[in-house]
Write a structure and sequence with these properties.
Order of helices and strands: EHEHEHEHEHEHHEHEH
Shape: globular
Structural class: alpha/beta
CATH architecture: 3-Layer(aba) Sandwich
CATH topology: Arginase, Chain A
Distance between the termini: 6 Å
Largest sheet: 8 strands, parallel
Number of helices: 9
Strand content: 5-15%
Number of strands: 8
CATH class: Alpha Beta
CATH superfamily: Ureohydrolase domain
Strand order of the largest sheet: 2-1-3-8-7-4-5-6
Number of domains: 1
Amino acid sequence: MDINIIGAASDLGVSLDGTSKAPELLLQHFREISSELISPSEPCTKSLTREDKRKNEGALNRFNAELYSRAVSSKASGSFTVFLGGDHSCAIPSVLSSVTQYGRIGVMWIDAHTDYNTFRTTETGNIHGLPLACISGFECGELREFHSGGTVDPQNICVIGARSIDRDEKDNVKKAGIHLYSVDDLRERGIASVMEEAFSICLNGTSAVHVSFDLDVIDPTEAPGVSVPEKDGITKREALLINSIVSGRIDEVCSYDLVELNPLRDTEGRTETTACRLLDQLLVSVKSK
């Protein structure tokens, strides 16, 4: 199957710099794959004020609209489309373009965070903490104005590896009814069991699953190169096992994101190496699809 990688070279969704450099860095390892590297088309002085609850909203929306247009074209051509972030806000156009192409889909969100804040509940104003709420239609309509179609039913969304949820964000998650699997769940129940259940939930009444993999799900002792590290994460081995299960069910996966590598915070390229291994796992499976 044809593959197209879209590099979303932006860190507008987070107050720290660095994730914008990740797509170009990673694409150097996959030169044989068709790819596009997309950067914001206009200069933007990033807002760093904690009190600014809508940091870089206008510039980010314009960038995401461009990503969405490219992704819709890529998927309409029949290519399996992979998004390389960049911060996790690029998942908004990535997921919604899959909704446009495939109709009702499920979403598997592999992340230390639930990313289910809204402009009403965010504590930092960093928009990379809002994308899952946005794509499920939970407020955040300002962030998806470029998309005229539907959103993802929260009942078809699973978050795997979450361990850091803001106080008011917890209420959003509870109200929406998305399914959460903590690191403890993975350890106590076993990764294979959790993944089997998660796929069942994501595929219940849907045509396919979109997988969005945030590298901060891995413990920072093994993957330090992320913008918002959270202790007590999964190991690199566990991350590769989760991703191997995803890759083994590639016929049920419609699209994929790998996000939040921050080369400026990496140590000896350790997180970059893990990101390449994850991406290679996926691409080998897609090529045989």
